[in-house]
Amino acid sequence: MTTNPIEQIGGLTSSANVPKADIVAWGKGRVAQVLADVSELRSTTLAGQNAVQVKSLKQAYYIDVADTTTADDGVSCIVSADGFRFKPAKLLPTGNIVGDSDAQTLTNKAIDGGSNTLTNIAIASLAAIGAATLLGNPAAAGAPAEEFSIQSLAELLTPHFASDFILAYDHTSGQFRKIAPKTLVPEGSVDTIAALKGTDKTSRARMQVNGYYTLGDCRPRVYWYDSTDTTSSDNGGTIIVATDGARWKLIGPVSVKMFGARDNGTDQTTAVTTALNYAATTGVPLDFDGAIFSVTQVVITGKSGLRFGRGGLVGLAGSATDSILTFINCVDVTFYDHFSINGNYNTNYSYGLHGYTTGAGQSVQYFNLTNVIFNACKIGWAFGSTSRSDDTISEINFFGGRTYGCPGIGIGIGKNTVVNTHGCTWQSDFGTSPGSWGSLPNIGLEAKGATLNINGGELLYVLNTTGSLTAITGLSSGTGNVYGNINVKDAVVECANMLASTGAAGVLSPSGGAINFSGCRTVFTTDVVGGSVQLEASFAGRVTIVGNSGFSVNARTQWNINAVSNTTAIITTDMQSFGVNCLQGYAGLNGGAQQIVIDGDCAAWTASTPTVTAQSGTITTLGTCAASYLRSGKSVEYTFDIQITTAGTAAQAIKVSLPFPAKAGKNFVGAVYEYDTAGAAGTAAINPTVNDANNVYIRNASGGSFFANGRKVTGTIKYEMA
User: Fold this and answer.
1) What's the rounded Cα separation, in Å, for the pair 347 and 320?
2) d(CA 479, CA 133)
3) What order do you get walking across the sheet with 408-413 strand by strand?
4) Between these two residues, 34 and 129, which has the higher pLDDT value?
5) On the CB side of 404, how many CA atoms lie within 13 Å of its CA?
6) Residue 663 pLDDT exceeds 90
7) Region of residue 156 (left: phi > 0; alpha: psi -120 to 50; beta: else)
């Protein structure tokens, strides 16, 4: 049995004093010194020190006293202040990545290049291998190397940068070979991509790059030399072609800065577009480094499976441009972990974000946008186009996120366009805009033949004194012209102008269309001239505003829903949806084919003051005249009390004004009584023969006049509205 080395310091017993020199010598030989970083190792004299721990690299290094020539690269060899070479405790294998280590045969293997996964892999094999990244395409020996992920039991798709192992496919043996863990220790270090391009491929197999253009302008990452690849093009990010022809390939997660993008205010359109296209092609998530990049227009065409987030774009266009970020014929796109699109009050852009199709059989579908922020855009987002109005633009989902400084929040265009928002704060305003920006026309949310579903969140339209918070507009379609649909549910709505409106905009006789608000908390800050909801004469759809609560800051006198000159719109509301200080129930409605107030029969009677005149002659003096009505749909029940103080020359029938015009050709139903101050009473006849839509004519029971001083008339009638 060997005594513990610490017991042998200086050859003395444990009870003896130990010379300092003996303790130092023992410590250098037996204890690894912990150094903060490479710089501290380089600045420290370490003669006799057998081992050190470099904290920043999380790596143990041993002194190589036989080596006096190897250059210091900061990773595989670090030289101390007194010239000693320290090297990693374990150097990983170099050379061809295929076949370096244990062969592992995966049974029932098949490749799915569309989703970059290996499918139908035996569970036993998965247990043996674990989640892994595949280098090399088993579909064809001549195919370029690609990165895939094994489908594990716990995750549907294991990101390639989270892999536990690297697998390489050997076409000769038909086996996958498990090689080193993903955390490959680099064999050298350079500061820039330019320096990587100058690296001798025969001297290193893996290199750490600590910047892109300069040290620190991009996160450190590792590239490996693929000796089997002599043809791949340099994409500026994941594949770097060196001056000696070597293809250096990125290991690990991908970010926009790794493709050379700079967040310095200059145009980065090319680098950002390249990075997004790479991410879409490979299915690898793309990180925007928490930075904002300036671009003119980024266009992504025909891609699927794109995942990106944690950053943003700001527009630089100097001429008319559709949008800052454009998706054409794309499906399955995910924005994650916050992303911002800033129009910078640039009127050259129509939209911040636009997704649309360009040909038959194309679609834009399955977009999930989480916490996306639109700022200073004329219109924040748009999906669809008038040129392809029948194409499928659907399953567009916003989760959280907001707009501000945008007169237009968003627009859906197309008969088959559906956009859903969940818990978003959609604010329409002009922000801190210069001159012309503040004069732009503004519609908050517009459905041009499309369907917009707003679920929860906030709709804020309190800083605009013109325009409409929501609007459904007409669309010319190959299968028939249509209005759009807007459904708002369970949202907080604050509005300083029109809540909703319709507009055909030159489209001939569009059909359908719906405006629905339910379960919302509403606040109205102005008495909008013409009404809170304004419908044009040609609109033949439905407006349903029920189950809401709220108030107006000041008493309102304008209509809640105004369908003036409209005889086709079907309007449904209730007694409380427009809230305190607003006209209630039918009193707030004007026009339309039907005006149905839910629970209207349970409402209180509405008081009114009738106009009373004689069919011929003049009543000299009227006493107290009062009336009230109760309306349910097109049916009106009307009660009145009239006192004639001095009859004067009045003759024939008494004319009592109606609260709502009566339908032509329809009779009144009811009873009227006349009596005098002495208490005499009798029945009076309602004259059904005089067709006056605005008055009811009343005669006495014999059909004659009953005008007399002190005479009173009271009655209740029912009739159908016009």
Assistant:
1) 8
2) 49
3) 298-301, 321-328, 349-356, 379-383, 408-413, 443-448, 468-473, 498-503, 533-534, 561-563, 589-591
4) 34
5) 8
6) no
7) alpha
At 678 the pLDDT is 53
Length of the chain: 722
| pTM exceeding the 0.85 threshold for the entire prediction | no
List the beta bridge partners of residue 426.
403, 459
The pLDDT value recorded for residue 136 is 42
Cα 599 from Cα 547, distance rounded (Å): 11
Distance (Å) of CA 421 to CA 204, 381, 396, 484: 51, 12, 8, 16
First-last CA distance in the chain? 112
557-580 pLDDT per residue, tens? 999 999 988 888 999 998 788 989
**SS3 (DSSP) at 22:** helix
Contact 182, 163 (CB under 8 A): yes
SS3 category, 266 = coil
DSSP-derived letter for residue 81 is T
Cα–Cα distance, 478 to 488 (Å, whole number): 28
Residue 419 has pLDDT above 50, yes or no: yes
Rounded CA gap, 18 and 570, in Å? Answer: 101
Q: Which amino acid is at 419?
A: V
Flag whether pLDDT at 630 surpasses 90.
Answer: no
Q: What is the mean pLDDT of the chain?
A: 81
Cα-based angle 513, 539, 575 (whole degrees, multiple of 5): 80
Give the closest residue to 686 by CA, choosing from 698, 673, 670: 698
For 703, other C-beta atoms within 10 Å of its C-beta total 10
| pLDDT one-digit tens code per residue, 488-526 | 999 999 999 999 999 987 788 889 999 999 999 999 999
- Residue 199, class by beta-carbon neighbours within 10 Å (0-12 exposed, 13-18 middle, 19+ buried)? buried
| Cβ contact 623:645 at 8 Å | yes
The predicted pLDDT at position 548 comes to 92
Q: Is 512 exposed, middle or buried (0-12, 13-18, 19+ CB in 10 A)?
A: middle
Cα torsion through 561, 567, 573, 576, rounded to 10: 40
